[in-house]
Specification:
The protein is α+β, with helices and mostly antiparallel strands. It has ten helices and 18 strands.
Length: about 325
């Protein structure tokens, strides 16, 4: 019998429309002979299941819906939500409460990895190299001269909890910092300020596939603009070279660091991490626990390069979560 799968997409942040594209790719590639898949779209106005061309409200308390007096529930959830509530633990907590297995990491891990600052602080004792950084809260007073003395220029100003490079600015001059902080605050009430590292930038996926952890070939990022911003990621304003042009030593160091990040954080299913090289040493920037799955996204590119078809990857992820229906306390 086919397993009933909810492919959850959308979300309530600026990444909503990107997540819709990711969810559409998942629906496209899930084998129809194995799964009966339903799109569940989350927006600020509610949670809606697309059932036989109809839009039906989903009860978040039970993660089910009623159509023509019949209750429809799910065997598992494929989480394709970028941002809130899919990457910050909210969706995972709801599913754990009703004992529905889902792809990706647990609620506990999602809460950690969605917070860039907390992730950096967690990984530092594990021997992962990180840039100098400082966290500001919305209510904080800040002294620009002190920030420059601590972090240096140029630097990056980022929304602490956001993705797809929303709320990110590269700052070259002291006069730009205040504007960058306020821009980041439009996305989140915390702002991460990080020192700029000049070097080769790479992004690398890690997947749990066929009962083993597979580190995918990294992608080298060459942004046509000042950095790998939204336009570079989604509008073609960058060069993406897979596999990245790295030395054997660099590649070995990167693979070791990427796998260590994945296992130390107790990530599940798949993730994508970003690094910048300083010499032969990769410096960790951030981890995406629900990486982009659009046709132009990096993880699908990397999987294709080693012969992992998206349909096979998605099927394996769902079979694993159905098989291992246990949740982290």
């Amino acid at each position: 019998m086919k397993k009933r799968i909810a492919v959850v997409m959308g979300g309530t942040t600026s990444e909503h429309h990107i997540s819709l594209k990711s969810g559409a790719v998942v629906l496209k590639h899930l084998p129809k002979n194995l799964f009966d898949a339903t799109a569940v779209i989350i927006s600020k106005s509610g949670w809606i299941a697309q059932h036989n061309g109809q839009q039906v409200p989903v009860d978040k308390n039970t993660f089910s819906y009623i159509f023509e007096k019949e209750t429809h529930s799910f065997d598992a959830v494929f989480n394709a939500v970028h941002g809130v509530p899919g990457e910050n633990g909210e969706l995972q907590s709801i599913l754990e409460n009703v004992n529905i297995p889902y792809t990706g990491c647990s609620a506990k891990v999602a809460r950690l990895t969605y917070n860039k600052y907390d992730t950096l602080e967690f990984l530092a004792p594990h021997g992962i190299h990180i840039a100098k950084h400082h966290l500001l809260h919305k209510e904080d007073d800040w002294d620009i001269a002190e920030l420059i003395e601590k972090i240096g220029l140029p630097c990056f100003v980022k929304a602490n909890k956001a993705g797809s490079s929303y709320g990110v600015m590269k700052v070259h001059k002291a006069s730009e910092i205040e504007t960058a902080i306020y821009k980041a605050l439009l996305e989140d009430d915390q702002v991460l300020i990080e020192s700029y590292l000049e070097g080769t930038e790479v992004s690398i996926g890690v997947v749990e596939y066929q009962n083993r952890i597979v580190v995918l070939p990294p992608t080298e990022i060459i942004a046509n603009g000042d950095f790998f911003d939204y336009e570079a990621k989604y509008e073609g304003n960058s060069q993406e070279i897979t596999p990245a042009r790295l030395s054997e030593v660099q590649l070995q160091n990167l693979n070791t660091a990427a796998k260590k990040v994945f296992t130390a954080l107790n990530a599940k299913g798949f993730s994508r991490s970003d690094f910048i090289f300083q010499g032969d040493i990769p410096y960790f920037l951030e981890l995406n626990s629900i990486p982009g799955l659009t046709e132009e996204s990096l993880l699908p590119q990397q999987a294709r390069h080693v012969g992992i078809a998206l349909g096979d990857l998605f099927t394996d992820l769902l079979h694993n979560c159905l098989k291992n229906n246990t949740f982290e306390a």
